[in-house]
Amino acid sequence: MIAILGTGKMGEALLSGLLRAGVEPGEIMVTARREERAQALRDRYAVRVVSNIEAAQTADTLILAVKPQDMGTLLAEVGSQVPAGRLVISVAAGITTSFVESRLSDEVPVVRVMSNTPVLVDEAMSVISAGAHASEIHLKQAEDLLKPVGKVLRIPESQQDAATALSGSGPAYFFYLVEAMVDAGILLGMPRAAALDMVTQSIVGAAIMLRDSGEHPVILREAVTSPAGTTISAIAELERHSVRAAFLAAIEAARDRSRELASG
Ligand SMILES: NC(=O)C1=CN([C@@H]2O[C@H](COP(=O)(O)OP(=O)(O)OC[C@H]3O[C@@H](n4cnc5c(N)ncnc54)[C@H](O)[C@@H]3O)[C@@H](O)[C@H]2O)C=CC1
Ligand SMILES: O=C(O)[C@@H]1CCC=N1
C-alpha cells in the first residue's frame, strides 16, 4: 500500500502517474487537509482519502508531498506512527533526509526525491538520494515507483539542492521562455494563438532533437546559426543582455533558496 501525504499539485501528479502506470486505486491512499480537496480526489481517482495517522500506520511506502514549510508540522503529527520496515519518500524541496529521520521514532529508511511537473505526461526528471538508513533495496523501490513517470537518476544528497534548482524548477524556466517568445511574436504583429503554436512546436521539436540525437546543444545551435544570418543577430542581443549570466545567477539563487527551506 502506497500513501501520499499532502496531495496538492505534485502529490496529485504522482498519484495520476502511479495510476497510469497500472497501480490499482485500491493500492493507494492519500491525505488532504480540506474536505473539498478530499472529495475531488475521491471523485477523480477513486482512491481512499484517509487521515495522516492512518496513512502513516498502514502504508508500506509513504510519499511526503507537503510544502517544505509544512513538513515539520506533518512529521510532528506522524513521525512516531511510522513502524520500522516501511519506506518514507520525501519530495519536498530543501528538506534533507536527516531532517525527516530525526522526526521519525524508528530507524525508517528515507529516500529524498526531487521530481518535476512533467510527471503529468510521464516525462518527469526525478533525482533520488538515500538517507542514513536507506539501502540499495530502498533506492530500487523508489526507482520502480518513479520510472513509469519519467527518467530517474541517483545523485549524492549533497547535489539535491542544485538538482532542485536545475530540474525541479526547470520546467518553469522553459514556460517563462515560451511566454517571452510569444510576447515577441505579438510585438512583431503575430496573432497570439499562432505565436504560441509556433513557439510550442519549436521548443518541443528542439527538445526531442536534443534528447534523441545525442548531439551537444552547441552543435545543434550552430546548425541553426548561419554566418551573418538572423539567428546570430538574435544571439548577439541575448549576449548583450547577459542572458547566459542571468541563468547562472538565477539557478544559483534557486539552489540557495532550496538550502534555506530546510530551516523553515
Ligand atoms: N510544484 C512543483 O513543480 C514541484 C514541487 N515539489 C515539491 O512538492 C511539494 C508539494 O508542492 P506542491 O504540490 O507544488 O504544493 P501544493 O501546495 O500544491 O501541495 C501541498 C498539499 O499539501 C497539503 N497539506 C499541507 N499540510 C498538510 C497536512 N499536514 N496534511 C495533509 N495535507 C497537507 C496542502 O493542503 C496541499 O494540498 C513541495 O515540498 C515542493 O517542494 C517538487 C518538485 C516540483
Ligand atoms: O518552487 C518550488 O519550491 C518547487 C520546488 C521545485 C519546483 N517547485
UniProtKB/TrEMBL annotation:
Residues 157-261 form the Pyrroline-5-carboxylate reductase dimerisation domain. Gene3D superfamilies: NAD(P)-binding Rossmann-like Domain (3.40.50.720), ProC C-terminal domain-like (1.10.3730.10). Residues 2-94 form the Pyrroline-5-carboxylate reductase catalytic N-terminal domain. It catalyses: L-proline + NAD(+) = (S)-1-pyrroline-5-carboxylate + NADH + 2 H(+); L-proline + NADP(+) = (S)-1-pyrroline-5-carboxylate + NADPH + 2 H(+). It is an enzyme of class 1 (oxidoreductase). Keywords: Amino-acid biosynthesis, Cytoplasm, NADP, Oxidoreductase, Proline biosynthesis. Its main location: cytoplasm. Its EC number is 1.5.1.2. The keyword Cell membrane does not apply. Catalyzes the reduction of 1-pyrroline-5-carboxylate (PCA) to L-proline. This is Pyrroline-5-carboxylate reductase. It comes from Sphaerisporangium flaviroseum. The gene is proC.
